[in-house]
Amino acid sequence: MSSSSNIRATVAVIGGTGTLGEQISTALLTEFREQFPTVRVFTRDPSSATAQGLAKKGAEIVVLDIDSLESALAGVDVIANILPTVLPEDVRKKVNDAVVKSGAKVYFLSEFGLDHRLVNFSGYEQPEWEGKKRLAAAVRAQAKGSGTKIISLYTSVFLEILLGPYLGFDLEKNVYSPYGSASQKFSTTAKPDIGRAVGSLALLALDSSTVATVPDEVRIAGSTVSYEEVRDIVSSVKGVPKGEIEVLDLDKLEQSLRDQKGKGSILDYLRLSVGKGWLDHSDNDNELVNPGRKLWKWKTVDDQLRA
Ligand SMILES: NC(=O)c1ccc[n+]([C@@H]2O[C@H](COP(=O)([O-])OP(=O)(O)OC[C@H]3O[C@@H](n4cnc5c(N)ncnc54)[C@H](OP(=O)(O)O)[C@@H]3O)[C@@H](O)[C@H]2O)c1
Questions:
Q1: Does the CB atom of residue 15 touch ligand 1 within 6 A?
Q2: 43 CB less than 6 Å from ligand 1?
Q3: Which end of the chain is more exposed for a tag (fewer CB within 10 A), N or C?
Q4: What is the average pLDDT across 14-24?
């Protein structure tokens, strides 16, 4: 899969049975199998169908006990944290503490969303995203000088959940409702491609000749499109007339989120971020993780609609 083909390392995927975790575990167990012969998937329920499915692919299934996580991580080189943000912040901090103490060489934080460096919700911050930022800052400070490379991988919205009415894509009615402008670009990445990016970055970070090329914060984009372009792709893939575009008031949405002081819906935050251009990952690290697209072909909106 990569030029770092002489690397053989052990990986742990915490939350590796989840919506995103299953895809990351699968990519590591299949496309990166040679370099990662041991993939430990941590779960509360080893008997679940997903855990069993991953075991059949060769995963070592390990019971997740956050209180004894440090010892369960002994000897692991790369740790990918794919736990959800519904876990209380102190529990997620405990996971970070255990990882740093384990002495792992590479650690992926549970980010996989918007790039905090691009957004600016001044005065109406989104609590989940603020929590991610706080945890990242704390663990980075804690790991300083420890030899653990900590990576935040920003992917924008998952391609698999993008095309629904809740984000203003009503494919059934063929109506598209962006806030602000229909030509504003935003990015989206498919979950299997995020899994591949984790594998590729882990190899780069494990290799002493390439580790310096890996930034602490990495931004990727499977594809970057606008509502107008999605409307046109739907028309060409489904053979239907170009749908209607209904532009909604971005300033009003921002004011409403401001008034709700962090209590607004996360979907509204996402839609505002799209409208503001904060999810446009046109300037990205794709070339680092998948040089010349030689390792894989990024899945596009067009591919998703055809599938
Ligand atoms: N960019 C996007 O569009 C997008 C969308 C969704 C999520 N995300 C991000 O992706 C990351 C992973 O989210 P996800 O939705 O994939 O997670 P998830 O599926 O909700 O959870 C992942 C796994 O964590 C374990 N888990 C769940 N609740 C737990 C608890 N209370 N205690 C211990 N373990 C628990 C479960 O494994 P077991 O049941 O096997 O123990 C679950 O399969 C998060 O950082 C999230 O913010 C991004």
A1: yes
A2: yes
A3: C
A4: 98
Alpha-carbon distance of 277 to 281, in angstroms, equals: 9
User: Which tokens belong to 123?
Assistant: 């005065």
Residue 193's closest CA among 4, 40, 23? 23
**Domain 10-306 classified CATH 3.40.50.150?**
no
Query: Which residue ranges make up each domain of the chain?
Result: 10-306
Look at the block and give the residue holding tokens 């690397």. 7
Backbone dihedral region for residue 250 (phi beyond 0: left; psi -120 to 50: alpha; all else: beta): alpha
H helices of 119-187, where?
127-143, 159-162
Query: What is the Å distance from ligand 1's center to 115 Cα?
Result: 18
* pTM, to two decimals: 0.97
Nearest to 41 by CA among 21, 56, 27: 21
Handedness of CA 286, 291, 296, 298 (dihedral sign): positive
Q: Looking at the predicted structure, is the pLDDT value of residue 270 above 70?
A: yes
Contact, 36 vs 58, CB < 8 A? no
| Mean pLDDT across 81-97 | 97
Helix axis angle, 89-102 to 127-143, nearest 10°? 20
Find tokens 């699968």 and name the residue: 26
Which one, of 186, 204, 192, lies nearest residue 291 by Cα?
204
Report which protein residue has its CA nearest ligand 1's atom 33: 44
Res. 276 pLDDT band, cuts 50 70 90: very high
